[in-house]
Amino acid sequence: MGATRIVIDTNILVAALRSKRGSAHKLLSLLPEDRFVPCLSVPLFLEYESVAKREGMLSGLAAADIDAILDYVLSKSSIRKIFYLWRPFLKDPKDDMVLEVAVESGSEFIVTFNKRDFDGIEQFGIDVLTPRELLIQKGMLK
To answer: How far is the CA of 14 from the CAs of 30, 87, 128, in angstroms?
Structure first.
């Protein structure tokens, strides 16, 4: 059985980089184990970078540290090309960007803290989970 394909919302990445205590950090710390494959598009990666480097967002990390972390996430990800845009489906166009990657990649899950932002996507066969819910469901949380 292959690794689970997921799309990680930007708020998860930021939370993981802000604190080593939460489930978001635990999720990213499992990247080396290849138990899941994050799926990304270029626009989603650029959003990760833009938000992570926003002044005051990650005050404990230098730009070079953020670049190194993002490079690592990118190296562990499946980069997807989006050839279709059927927006708007969700209220926020940035959430539509996340959904497009999930649909194109055949991802099983979108991982976010803002589950209500993705109401209605069950018709695509994609579940929306918090990092904790995903870790529990996949037996990755001790």
So the answer is: 16, 25, 18
Residue 63 has pLDDT above 70, yes or no: yes
pTM higher than the cut 0.90: yes
Q: Which of 50, 68, 66, 74 is nearest to 18 (CA)?
A: 66
Candidates 3.90.550.10, 3.30.70.1050, 3.30.565.10, 3.40.50.1010; CATH matching 4-137: 3.40.50.1010
What confidence tier does 83 reach under pLDDT thresholds 50, 70, 90?
Answer: confident
Q: How far apart are the first and last CA of the chain?
A: 22
Collapsed DSSP state (helix, strand, coil) of residue 48: helix
Residue position matching structure tokens 């005051």: 56
